[in-house]
């Protein structure tokens, strides 16, 4: 009986490792299929869609079919959001570079506001994909929700960042695993953390509605 349980657990572990590897390879395939530039955003949205279903206990979904359907559906919208995020990122990067190069009073006055804006941008970037695949919102509301969910759940946000840094440190010593475990593991860390934040917010909202 004990051997059967151990065998079952080992099988489940191997099955999940296979799923993580497959979804990462599919992400790479569809990213390259979109010539990287136009493929990375819809492929990442599709990746988070699959992982979101896993967080909701839909573990037996067909990975490739789910990925492909989401990729087709989100190709144009995802690239539009990607353009917006990249443009904002470049704008912040060059602003920071300019302020640091000038220095002096200019740095003293604008350094702190730019740092706050940059941290806000990174917070939005961290939660954007989970929010995008979990909610149906208007264009700017995705960025607003991502920011406030991250800000209102700082302990969860810090845990996600810590886990990401730890994973990146580990994978840097094992570069051969990058094609198999990079984005899939990153998306799992972020999506599971975000799902915890979503549940906490939903619980607070339902409690508030009952009290009202």
Topology (SSEs and partners):
Elements: H1 2-33, H2 40-55, H3 63-102, H4 104-134, H5 139-152, H6 154-172, H7 178-211
Helix pairs in contact: 1-2, 1-3, 1-7, 2-3, 2-4, 2-7, 3-4, 4-5, 4-7, 6-7
User: Structural class of the secondary elements?
Assistant: mainly alpha
Mean pLDDT over all positions: 92
Counting DSSP H or I runs of 4 or more residues, the number of helices is 7
Overall, the morphology is: globular
CA gyration radius, whole angstroms: 20 Å
Percentage beta strand: under 5%
What are the segments in which pLDDT stays under 50 over at least 5 consecutive residues? none
Residues in helix, %:
over 70%
Could you please describe the fold and organization of this structure?
The termini are far apart. The longest helix has 40 residues, at 63-102. Helices cover 88% and strands 0% of the residues. The chain contains 7 helices and no strands. The model has no long low-confidence stretch (mean pLDDT 92).
Features:
mainly alpha, globular, 0% strand, 212 residues
Compact summary:
The chain is 88% helix and 0% strand. With 212 residues, it is mostly helical. Helix 1 packs across helix 3 (63-102) and helix 4 (104-134) packs across helix 5 (139-152).
């Amino acid at each position: 009986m004990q051997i059967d349980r151990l065998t079952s657990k080992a099988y489940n572990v191997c099955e999940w490792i296979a799923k993580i590897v497959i979804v990462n390879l599919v992400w790479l395939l569809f990213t390259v299929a979109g010539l990287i530039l136009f493929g990375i955003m819809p492929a990442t949205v599709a990746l988070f869609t699959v992982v979101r279903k896993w967080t909701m206990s839909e573990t037996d979904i067909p990975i490739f079919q789910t990925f492909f359907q989401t990729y087709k559906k989100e190709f144009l919208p995802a690239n539009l959001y990607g353009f917006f995020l990249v443009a904002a990122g470049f704008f912040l990067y060059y602003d920071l570079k300019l302020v640091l190069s000038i220095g002096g009073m200019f740095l003293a006055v604008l350094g702190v506001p730019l740092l706050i804006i940059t941290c806000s941008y990174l917070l939005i970037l961290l939660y954007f994909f989970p929010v995008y695949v979990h909610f149906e919102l208007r264009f700017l509301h995705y960025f607003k929700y991502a920011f406030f969910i991250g800000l209102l759940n700082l302990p969860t946000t810090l845990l996600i960042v810590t886990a990401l840094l730890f994973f990146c440190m580990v994978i840097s010593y094992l570069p051969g695993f990058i094609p198999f475990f990079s984005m899939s593991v990153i998306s799992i860390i972020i999506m599971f953390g975000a799902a915890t934040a979503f549940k906490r917010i939903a619980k607070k909202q339902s409690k508030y509605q009952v009290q009202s």
